[in-house]
Design a protein that fits this description.
By secondary structure, the protein is of the alpha+beta class. The protein has six helices and six strands; from the N terminus they run ααβααββββαβα. The N and C termini lie far apart (45 Å). Homodimer.
């Protein structure tokens, strides 16, 4: 059973799939729900292990086919640097390029959409006669939560 899941997201992708005439199989749906249930990016093998809790016969190709489908429909993003997956914040409400903030301490991933950044990248590419077909923008650092915890620990250590 998937915990902490916004069931409206599942309903939204079911409706999108129906409107597009594509099939959202139970395994594709389960993989999507597993990805959505975590703020951290999930690897294919982590997803397989979780999927096998409810479907013991699931094999790696099952997960990879589901991931390919979900990415093709714009429901998830691949985190290139870690070869893992996160849900798309707009669930393909419109085609977009995203910017991922990845915490190197807790592995949380936050997706940003910044049209100004994308426009600037496209403008710079055009100046060189280059047409961008794919953006992979990942920034690695420390999230606000981990940064706050580090500050608290430093103050505690200093007070000793």
């Amino acid at each position: 059973m998937v915990m902490n899941l916004d069931h409206n997201l599942t309903k939204q992708i079911e409706e999108i799939c129906a409107a597009r005439g594509v099939r959202l199989t139970s395994q594709r749906k389960q993989v999507f729900e597993l990805i959505c249930s975590s703020r951290k990016a999930s690897s294919a093998y982590e997803l397989l292990e979780a999927l096998q809790q409810s479907e013991p016969q699931a094999k790696p190709p099952t997960v990879y086919r589901a991931l390919d489908f979900l990415m093709g429909q714009g429901f998830i993003h691949r985190v290139e640097s870690t070869n893992s997956y996160i849900s798309c914040c707009s669930c393909n409400a419109h085609k977009h390029f995203s910017h991922l903030l990845i915490c190197k301490q807790c592995s949380d991933v936050t997706e940003l959409q910044d049209e100004t950044l994308v426009s600037s990248l496209e403008h710079n590419a055009e100046k060189h006669g280059f047409k961008i077909t794919n953006h992979v923008i990942e920034s690695h650092g420390i999230c606000q939560t981990c940064s706050s915890e580090t500050k608290r620990e430093t103050v505690k250590d200093y007070a000793r």
